[in-house]
Amino acid sequence: MTTKSNGKEQAARIKCLIDFIEMKSESKFPRVFIQDILLVFGSMYDLHALLCYFKWAQDHHKSDDTILKTIMHDLSGVQQNPETFCPLTAGYSAEASE
User: Fold this and answer.
1) CA-CA 20 to 30 A from 36: which of 45, 74, 76, 95?
2) Of 67, 57, 87, 62, which Cα lies nearest the Cα of 25?
3) What is the DSSP letter of 27?
């Protein structure tokens, strides 16, 4: 795969994640807010692992509530101390999502 196709694939996965959060969250966060949080999360933690968790959880038929709670835990962690906060999705990788 080329870098360009990898970028398109990741953009599609991010869009899917944002759509999921928008649809399932009772807080009804604005799309731009979710995008900003994902950008900050990606700079502090592992966005790829978060995306892999999302795919893995859907592939393994985890409940939407469980998926949303895990993702929101991790995304809210950007407001915490990065020295002590550990995302729940930190252990997920491409291998875990297959």
Assistant:
1) 95
2) 67
3) T
Q: What is the pLDDT of residues 6-54, one digit of tens each?
A: 889 999 999 999 999 999 998 888 899 999 999 999 998 899 999 999 9
Reduce the secondary structure of 21-84 to three states and give it as a string: HHHHCCCCCCHHHHHHHHHHHHHHCCHHHHHHHHHHHHHCCCCHHHHHHHHHHHHHHHHCCCCC
Q: What is the C-alpha separation between 52 and 63, in angstroms, rounded?
A: 16
Structure tokens at 61: 């038929």
pTM, two decimal places = 0.84
**What is the Cα–Cα distance from 41 to 95, expressed in whole angstroms?**
21
